[in-house]
Specification:
The chain is built from 10 helices and 31 strands. It is α+β, with helices and mostly antiparallel strands.
Length: about 575
């Protein structure tokens, strides 16, 4: 694949042409940066006091009738009645009539003023086209949307835009500076990381109609040997043709992989149930997840609508630090009488911000990074894992008991390249109330949570089988089946653009059963990105303390906000 550098250079880099096209590149990049978002602020009813307040600040009222959408002008609120003159909807108020979600809807900068002045009322009436005078009881409206700026989503986009542009400018400046001495045959590849950079981990691609589609990363966060762990990746929606499954595990750019074991796990279970392994490899089934009664990020801020379904509308743990110094969300669920076990099911991912933050962190080591990594690989394996949990980098789970919050377990890091379903069994035998409270806790903005639910159903009967590969071949043609057969400290080592291709022959499940498949793999990886500069010992010493990573994230995010504000003033 040709890169920006190679396309422009030919036999010799034309620096002026590169600068010009780089400016074009940044202009195009800016078209997806500094976006603004609004939320509809949906209410089931609109009372007289609220309507009068909206009218007093000159909000523009729009009525969604059964037979069309019209504007309402000369609005007056008389007791419980809304009155006005029906008019053809002006063009400036005709652009944002159908918000796609409760949280995140884009509004263009030029339209922001008009759109954020709108109040949308939904009526069952079908007025005649000739009608101009309108009068209706406020209670007759089935829904009211009061548009407002989504400050959280807008600020986050602006901050990430600034970070991305600053990184792009730094890359361009670096290439230009290198132009005077870079040999013609050197190709500078792109980073491929997008806004937050790639998940630092081996990448899984599933074959679908003769092409490989990216699925997810494996054992994210296992950045040295003492953090090696197993991962259980659900292979949902995989194409099964002629009873074959094929996938590829590939090295990520600027990394090397040490893969210890790879298995394809087949679970045959009753139709109508779903199965997932927890982080320990225990397979659990669930049938009917119950949404939380409340999901409180901070006092008075209920975000349960964000977590009601998997729809890429995330809660991003962006609230103020709790008493333990982390971001959290507290979930309240109904608890049926007589149940002593619950299964917490979530859909989540690590955030793009978390990927950027990791790069900032390892940059503090400067020239001593590799020396530090070697030291970590010689340490007791419990120490690096404990440091990660002390910093709440995994998603920590607590249950409220009579004596306070009790730690249950954690969801491991999964990277920011893809979200996934995860499950955890919780012993609720000690909870006598008809509700349970669960707390999810992590470092500031380190996770994006899409869905959370509880299932109380008993585990169903199922059969499992580990399928042996018919092929496990490395890019260089070397057979990897024996090396990857079990966890035995014999590693398949991937560097550069190397990958391993796997093929499996499968059998279909018996009648009334369905099959689910999971890629089970263990290993670790190293980042090979060069890190230079002096070691920032003063900053690094802070990370000996529990919760330092959360403070680091808040400080860096505020720094990015300050840069954003300064750029916007220019």
């Amino acid at each position: 694949m040709k890169t920006l550098y190679s396309v422009l250079s030919g036999s010799k880099l034309n620096t002026q042409k590169f600068i010009y096209l780089s400016a074009v590149f940044l202009t195009v990049a800016l078209s997806s940066c500094y976006l603004n978002f609004y939320r509809p602020g949906t209410k089931s009813t609109l009372d007289s006091a609220a309507a009068q307040k909206l009218q007093s600040v000159n909000k523009y009222f729009i009525i969604h009738f059964q037979n069309g959408i019209r504007g309402l002008e000369n609005v007056a609120v008389n007791g419980d009645t809304l009155k006005g003159i029906i008019v053809k909807l002006p063009e400036e108020h005709s652009k944002y009539l159908a918000p796609v979600s409760e949280k995140k809807n884009r509004v263009k900068q030029k339209d922001k003023h008009d759109a954020l002045m709108e109040v949308h009322l939904y009526s069952m009436q079908k007025p005649d086209v000739a009608d101009t005078v309108f009068s209706a009881l406020l209670s007759s409206f089935t829904r009211a949307d009061v548009y407002e700026l989504n400050k959280s989503a807008t600020t986050y986009n602006h901050v990430m835009s600034t970070v991305g542009i600053v990184a792009s400018v730094a890359m361009i400046v670096g290439v230009i500076a290198a132009a005077s001495y870079t040999p013609p045959d050197i190709v500078i590849t792109n980073t491929g990381g997008g806004t937050g950079g790639p998940c630092n981990c081996p990448q899984v691609y599933v074959k679908n109609n003769d092409r490989y589609d990216f699925k997810s990363g494996l054992y994210s966060g296992a950045v040295y040997s003492t953090l090696e762990r197993m991962d259980y990746l659900p292979l949902t929606n995989i194409p099964v043709k002629e009873n074959n499954i094929s996938f590829k595990i590939a090295n990520a750019q600027n990394e090397e992989q040490f893969i210890n074991e790879v298995q394809l796990l087949q679970v045959n279970h009753p139709a109508g149930t779903t199965v997932l392994p927890d982080r320990h490899g225990n397979i659990l089934s669930f049938q009917n997840t119950i949404a939380p009664l409340a999901a409180s990020a901070e006092k008075g801020n209920d975000v349960k609508n964000l977590l009601a379904k998997t729809d890429q509308q995330y809660y991003s743990f962006d609230n103020n630090a709790n008493e333990d110094g982390f971001s959290d969300i507290k979930l309240t669920f109904n608890k049926p009488a007589g149940t002593d076990k619950a299964k917490l099911v979530i859909h989540a991912r690590n955030s793009y911000w978390g990927g950027l933050l990791h790069k900032e962190f390892i940059g503090l080591f400067g020239d001593n990074f590799e020396k530090w990594r070697t030291k970590q690989e010689q340490a007791d394996a419990k120490d690096p894992a404990k440091w990660q949990t002390d910093q709440a980098m995994p998603l920590m789970v607590y249950m409220k008991t009579a004596t306070g919050w009790k730690f249950v377990d954690y969801f491991p890091l999964i990277g920011n390249t893809a979200s996934r379903d995860m499950i955890m069994e919780i012993n609720t035998a000690g909870i006598t109330a008809d509700q349970i409270e669960i707390k999810l806790e992590t470092a500031y903005r380190f996770w994006d949570l899409d869905f959370a639910g509880i299932d109380y159903s008993a585990n169903q009967q199922f059969e499992t089988a580990v399928i042996e590969p018919t092929q496990a071949v490395k890019t260089d043609g070397e057979d990897q089946k024996k090396i990857l057969l079990q966890s035995d400290k014999q590693y398949s080592h991937l560097t550069g653009d190397q990958s391993i291709s796997f093929q499996y022959t499968i059998t279909t499940a018996a009648a009334n059963n369905v099959s689910s498949y999971f890629l089970v793999s263990g290993g670790y990886y190293h980042s090979l990105e060069p890190i230079s500069g002096k070691t920032n010992y003063k900053e690094l010493y802070k990370f000996r303390n529990k919760g330092a990573y959360d403070k680091f994230s808040r400080a860096k995010y505020q720094e990015a906000q300050d840069i954003t504000a300064a750029l916007q003033k220019k």
